[in-house]
Design goal:
With about 475 residues, the protein is of the alpha+beta class. Helices cover about 25% and strands about 30% of the residues. It is rod-shaped and about 165 Å long.
Length: about 475
Amino acid sequence: MSILTHIRKAVNLLSGQLYFCNILPQTDTAMPFKAPHTTSARFFVPRYPKGGTAIISAAIAAIIGLSACQQQEAKPPAPRPALAYQIKTGAGAETELYAGEIRARVEADHAFRIGGKIVQRMVDAGASVKKGQALARLDPQDTKLASDASASQVAAQKTEVDFADSERKRYQDLFTKGFVSQSALDQKTSIANAAQARLDAARAQAAVSINQAGYSVLVAEMDGLVTQVLAEAGQVVAAGQAVMRIANPREKELAISASESKLADFRKVFAKPDNSNTPPTNLRVALWSQPGKYYNAKIREISGAADPAARTYAVRLSIIKPDDAIQLGMSAYAVFGDANESSTLTVPLSSIYVKGDPKGDMVGVWAIAADGKVSLKPIKVLQYRETTAFIEPVTGAASGSGSGSGSVKAGDLIVAAGVHKLREGEVVKPIIDTQIKGDGKVAYATPARTIGIAADNLKTAEVAVLAQRP
């Protein structure tokens, strides 16, 4: 609305109010008034006596001042807070990923050598045991009875041997005196030898029974950890049935399965002469609990035949210098790094913005400049992960919103959350949260540090709302 329009309305309104209150008596004559810079519009302003004109002039001046204030430019809005993430160098992309489990190179199932009922289990899963330590015990009653029976058999055979030996000696004396024939002496000698043989057999059987009595206690065959308990107290087990599994934690490996189509790649690396001494540079192992930390590994063995059910080949990877973070039974994965690792970057999934365009959707991230302004930079997504994405910069490509050419690079600052609420050129307050890492975990941010803009008055709730906006 122009200033002239304000004046026209004020004159007519004020003149009517003053006349209604009998402050300005209206005369019978009127004065035509033609506004400047107009073509044909004519307005008739009533004539007022002296003094009324001053009042009208003061009112018009006040209205003109008010209109001038209204036409002043509004103050720019305060910059919005935004969670930021700084792209790290050397993130790399992974072309092949194989999930597996951390296993010990040496592990063995422990079982009783005789059958029976378990009456006691001395250790639990996860316990550290030493060689010769008792693990479980069977009911010893049956083995004790068998041992006693064997001892009795030995005593009985000993008596028969003594009698047969006495008979042989008497016949030997009679044969010397010529009272018995050689045949009779040979018969008694054979009986004595047979009795001695039966005694030896009884003693051997007694030894077996004594050993079986010792087999009622299951002991550890090596130092290690109890990784699995397969039987409980009160359970009747057969001879050779696995009761516990013990693994040697000194050498840790990753057990994976390779498909038939990828078997040649594994064998190619395994056949290298330096595979046993120097680990391949493109073969690494990482834990699912720590996806950003990699360990060097080498191929120790490849199965010679495929699994009949899964039709995959078992592969064992030896981990070079494992630390305490790697525990037996953990889920992990092996990756073959891309040869073009240096040009790949890792960004959180929440930082990727897809812009619709008739010529095709553009995928990009919002880069934050030094002055806080954001601009959409195009990227090429190489691989999506659970919480991250591996990207490749699109060099020399113009962003569809006129922000210039080029893409992001290592070290750039990008918006990590709320990207669908941003506009080209908008000024934001970049806030780096230490909880936002390469794994893409965007949590509630604290205004611990800003870049270029102070954040003393920034509330954590503002950032949290920004990150959670739909």
